[in-house]
Design goal:
binds magnesium ion; 45% helix; 8 helices; Undecaprenyl pyrophosphate synthetase; 6-stranded parallel sheet; alpha/beta; globular; binds 3-methylbut-3-enyl trihydrogen diphosphate
């Protein structure tokens, strides 16, 4: 049986989040520049978007550039930003063809006008689409997001729009950049690193974590299928006992 045939289509994760890591190592292993790894990484992005769309996944969130990545050597940051503009321009047609809606989350104001302009164009062109939502986390980190949430809620508390005693999970979720998007059931990280690196800390409270040694440029559809199959073998208990979970199923 092929990997794809092993997937239970009745129990697909609605939302998959991916920490796309290992571009630099992939390139260095080949005696190439790190930037070359990032270019190859874009090809993997295209493949995974196509694969997830074919399966009928509803949301995919890709960690493309973290707040901390601004601290990389400036030539790498610049190359990544240029690659972003180039890829958005190149890929918009196929996103529209796949019926993908693009969303961006992160500190967009830190991005250059050129990046923001290409983003705006792709956001606009894909806004009419009805298929899978592709969320790109760009200049994003969870702590940045949480600071923003606290500030926004504090302002509303001062103006009287929110009563501090009524603050609950729902109010916090309404102020997150992921507002309206269900939490990811599955979080994938490539390249063998066993950490979260400031990604979606609130939203992954109950996500199933999947780590693979595969470096991001080598991650393809089969790897995506493997992650989903692994996820489908897990029992998600949300604090309850295994017995309770089975009772609810029957
Ligand atoms: C992930 O690959 C891409 C970004 C963080 C932008 P890396 O560039 O982190 O690759 P490694 O981890 O150095 O191999
Ligand atoms: C996490 O990868 C960020 C992205 C994939 C965009 P990093 O390579 O920046 O993470 P660390 O530094 O190894 O934790
Ligand atoms: Mg890395």
């Amino acid at each position: 049986m092929s990997l794809k045939e092993q997937i239970n289509f009745d129990r697909l994760p609605v939302h998959i989040a991916i920490i796309m890591d290992g571009n630099g190592r992939w390139a260095l292993q080949r005696g190439e520049d790190r930037i070359y790894g990032h270019q190859k990484g874009v090809e993997a992005v295209r493949t995974v978007i196509e694969g997830a769309t074919e399966l009928g996944i509803k949301y995919i969130t890709l960690y493309a550039f973290s707040t901390e990545n601004w601290n990389r050597p400036w030539n790498e940051v610049e190359a990544l930003m240029e690659l972003m503009v180039h890829s958005l321009t190149e890929e918009t047609d196929s996103l529209v063809k796949n019926n993908n809606i693009l969303k961006v989350m992160g500190d967009i104001e830190r991005l250059s006008p050129a990046v923001r302009q290409s983003l705006d164009e792709t956001l606009k062109r894909t806004s009419v689409c009805k298929g899978m939502t592709l969320v790109v986390a760009l200049s994003y980190s969870s702590r940045w997001e949480m600071v923003k949430v606290v500030k926004d809620i504090a302002h509303k508390a001062i103006s009287g729009e929110i009563d501090p005693d009524n603050i609950d999970y729902g109010i916090i979720e309404e102020h997150l950049t992921t507002k309206g998007i269900p939490d990811p059931e599955l979080l994938v990280r490539t390249s063998g690193e066993l950490r979260i690196s400031n990604f979606l800390l609130w939203q992954i409270a109950y996500s199933e974590l999947y780590f693979t040694e595969t470096l991001w440029p080598d991650f393809g559809k089969e790897e995506l299928y493997k992650a989903i199959i692994d996820y489908q073998k897990r029992e998600r208990r949300f604090g309850k006992t295994s017995e309770q979970v089975h009772k609810n199923e029957s």
